[in-house]
Amino acid sequence: xxxxxxxxDGLASIxxxxxxxxxxxxxxxxxxxxxxxxxxxxxxxxxxxxxxMERAATEGWAVVxxxxxxxLDGGGPPDRLDVVVTTRRLxxxxxxxxxxxxxxxxxxxxxxxxxxxxxAHGQWFxxxxxxxxxxxxxxxxxxxxxxxxxxxxxxxxxxxxGLTVVTGDGRVLRxxxxxxxxxxxxxxxxxxxxxxxxxxxxxxASIRLFPLPERDVSLLYRASRAGDLVDVSRKLxxxxxxxxxxxLLSPLPGGDAESGAAVVARVLGRSEEVSATCRLLERSxxxxxxxxxxxxxxxxxxxxxxxxxxxxxxxxxxxxxxxxLAELLGVADELSAALCFAGGRELRRTVGLGSGVLALDLxxxxxxxxxxxxxxxxxxxxxxxxGGGLGLLRAPGKVFREIGSADRSEVRRRLSEGLKxxxxxxxxxxxxxxxx
Amino acid sequence: xxDALSDPLVSRLRGIVGGDGVITEPAxxxxxxxxxxxxxxxxxxxxxxxxxxxxxxxVVEALREAGVAVVPRGAGTGLSGGALxxxxxxxxxxxxxxxxxxxxxxxxxxxxxxxxxxxxxxxxVHPHGLHYVPDPSSQSACTIGGNVAENSGGPHCLKxxxxxxxxxxxxxxxxxxxxxxLGGRGREWEGYDLVGLFVGSEGCFGIATEIEVDLLPLPRGxxxxxxxxxxxxxxxxAVSEIMARGLLPAALEIIxxxxxxxxxxxxxxxxxxxxxxxxxxIEFDGVEEGLDADxxxxxxxxxEAGAREIRRARDEEDRQALWKGRKKAFGAMGRIxxxxxxxxxxxxxxxxxxxxxxxxxxxxEYDLNLANVFHAGDGNLHPNILFDRRDPxxxxxxxxxxxEIMAACVEAGGxxxxxxxxxxxxxxxxxLIYDDATLEAMAGVRRVFDPYGGCNPGxxxxxxxxxxxDAVRRRGTPR
Lengths: 436, 479
Known about the structure:
The complex is a heterodimer of chains A (436) and B (479). By secondary structure, chain A is α+β, with helices and mostly antiparallel strands. Helices cover 34% and strands 23% of the residues of chain A. In chain B, 59% of the residues are buried.
């Protein structure tokens, strides 16, 4: 039985502690897209979480795992939903020995708390995915999204050392470890990072830290249109030194459609090294930057950029090899125009100049999803034939269903379905969500 | 010794790869009986060398249809017995897939076949001001395909990360002969991270036949220091101090006294003082500016930790000389004992001094000759045991000591392998770090890729681990 009462009763017999179980109108706050859960469970330990999942598998409850809830509908809403299981009571730093430059924390550890804690020891976790400061460590793992710093530090997958994960049927897995080099066994950590709750509920993670950079400088090159910055962008992306992040922003954080675009090269490191790198970047462009932001301002700019990310009602990723930036911007222009014609509004676009990935955030839910599906499918086809792709990170369920899976390879689908069965044999974790 | 392959199967394989691509004569197969871990030997029934993805797929399919297991092999430099042809397997070697298919400097990437030698790739992209970062010590011999299978590291991974960070896409032949395209730059959101899962799967999930990698600009400057210490502990203290000051060296390598003496007594003599307790190689790279300051600060750390001498490379020739003792360590040890067990484990950095003490105690308890060479910045240890396997009593002590060393590393919060892989060698240690549920999930994942169990059998997981789906069924309906 999956009635609201049956679900609530079942959970009540497992969960301990005040406010561990939420039902009724309060549960509505945890709706995932158009799906509203019967109950929200906040298990207080990994064991409790495991029992919740074991029960869910037996009863066939559809579960969506949640951290802070900031990317809850990322990857699309589920086909059905009974329980949202959060990790908010699995927070806290468990092991932090600064000399090891590693940290182990519960999935519910807020990213901003993680940052405060590590900064107090002159260290940081150099990952800045969209909206990170609003989220949790577990959310960062499950979404797996890189931010601008991928250029200098890689993606979250590259700095995660080990996980505690509860499978769809309540098994507790602990792949990886907490040391910085580890090749023991198959790399389940990388498989789970970015799997968006479809393979398991992340309960904890060990991460690699780095020394905080002594200096943080951003070089800005401005223009009224993003298209006018293609040449500067390419020169910076092929310079003989790499910036920690290199982005084309349109508009700059806090700006609007009229405020123009900018290329921002962020350089981190020791003082002399940063100055020299900036000069080399400017020499590659052939002229000095329009503006140079020092430590405080550079940090602020990137915090705002991170904060504005992840707020779109629709979030897309478009990519082409980095050298084809002009075409990439062209495809984004056409797509954006078509989506805006059908009720959308472009909020911002951000291009990772090293990766060739363009993030397009929009507001406005289309009244008729079919009006979006055509342009999206067309853009995806075009990008794919030219060596890139298009990904739908967040969109109304109707749009997800309309444009279908990005992946048409039969063999990859077979592998993915096989993996899903290993981790979620009862198929209760985010039913219907495709990772695409 | 298993039977020879049937004539029709050999003919079929020759039909796919050509007559010179199949070796069946036992005398010629001898070179393939082991990899870099020579303690294990197994003659393969045959060795087959396809030239591209299509041929590899046909070979794998033919072997599967005949019920013959496949063991992939690159250069055979692996140190965990990962390319050992157990279970009557046929080796599928990548030696004839050694072409760099595309160098794309504008997009800083390259696409290559798996048999390309690691150092050759960096040499090929050097004219474009680029390099391929992961640099295992065997880089002049090992292949990129082997690096993918093992998720190889190397001295410079301290600053830059290991193989999996640089592999962006793969064409793989799955164990049933099917071809799959995994990942590819700009397609990272398309499905699960199958590239990340495949890298480091030790040949159990199939054979990578094309590999797409990221390249980085060459560092503009480099500073290399060699610090000499009276004791290993002092060198360890210097390492902790360097890391604690927020310096991020490109490499931080310790060579202990026993290793120094082995090197100095060999043809590889590098001019390290033979009465030293340890030598520490420190390297910084990046833009020129700031490197001298970093090197100066690291020197101060060494001096405060009791270094009696600090040498600084003045040019590339000097730099190679300082590195020589580190790079030739394994070769030199071969000279002083018939056999060398190269161990590999990682511990949390702060546990290095305690673990090193424990390892030397274990060496004394078992009366064994131990020598340490390691990536100190990563906490990645290589305690090496020198022995003679013709002495069965000594071999027993080697095995017992190995096991204790692994247990000590795990107890300190570490792991059983940092970069050499599990292979056949460390399967039994897997239970030291993983519980049944995690091992069963790994076995379940393996079965998704290889439902027939014919791809590199007898590696990575202990034989009695059941795949997760079976384990779930066995438990019946959950309560």
